[in-house]
Amino acid sequence: MKAAAAPVVVLVTARAPVAGQAKTRLGATVGPAAAAELAAASLLDTLAAATATGWPVVVALTGDLDAAARSREIRTVLRRLLVVGQRGDALGERLVAAHRDAAVASGCERVVQIGMDTPQVTADQLQAASAALDQHGAVLGPATDGGWWLLGVRHPTTAACLAGVAMSRPDTAVLTRDALLRSVPSVGLLATLRDVDTADDAAAVAATAAHTSFARAWAAVAGSGTTARASRTRATTARASHR
User: Fold this and answer.
1) Closest to 111 (Cα-Cα) out of 49, 155, 149
2) What is the pTM of this model?
């Protein structure tokens, strides 16, 4: 008889979607307020997928939720989940602490961690990540920009290597896999997903996940003409700077 899978917790690392602080690259095209709305929708979609797994969900949160877009709606969802503050300075340090805190808060050793940049993620994908941990010491979901959208570990201490990994680089996924392989015998690779960082990313992801809150939010932004106005403004500024 096959042994039951180890208890697993979904860890969502998130930043409060505050205008001017959330999705700044996207905000350069659509404006800070619209970018915050899109970030809020992405967070809500991510939390819905995490909750749909039926596993405990821990949200490691940073930022001022009172000032966030869709604050009341986000707070309503968070009341049903376990919420911890992020600890540490650099991103890698915060991720290490979040893995440890998620395990303590939930009582689970196996951690499946995602951020809030892939609103297209599904509960099935999260469950597949946990299943892959039956064969590997860790699993990694690469992102199209060279980073990663998911990290799964059998034990939270495996994530300690993240403190030494350079983040937000085109080779972050490769560096993370190499670091993991120094502490576990094998790292499983999941499907590659596209992070939402730019307007092009947002349009592409919304087109593949029409059922999501994010897709509806993007349709509202695109339909308002915000992206076109921002593009014209950038073009005018560029021309002026060359005069």
Assistant:
1) 155
2) 0.90
Beta bridge partners of 143: 193
pLDDT tens by residue, 53-98: 999 999 999 999 999 999 999 999 999 999 999 999 999 999 999 9
CA dihedral 128, 131, 136, 138 (to 10 degrees): 60
Count CA atoms within 13 Å of residue 189 on its CB side.
Answer: 12
Neighbours of 174 (CB within 10 A): 15
Among candidates 47, 17, 48, which has minimal Cα distance to 35?
17
Q: Are 86 and 113 in contact (CB under 8 A)?
A: no
- Angle of helix 123-132 relative to helix 32-52, nearest 10 degrees, comes to 60
Q: What is the DSSP string of 95-129?
A: HHHHHHHHHHHH--SEEEEE-SS-TT--HHHHHHH
* CA distances for 45 relative to 102, 121, 131, 221, angstroms: 20, 8, 22, 17
Taking the CA atoms of 14, 122, 194 and 205 in sequence, report the sign of the dihedral they define.
negative
Q: How far apart are the first and last CA of the chain?
A: 76
Q: CA–CA separation, 143 vs 196, rounded Å?
A: 10
State the Cα–Cα distance between residues 130 and 9, nearest whole angstrom: 9
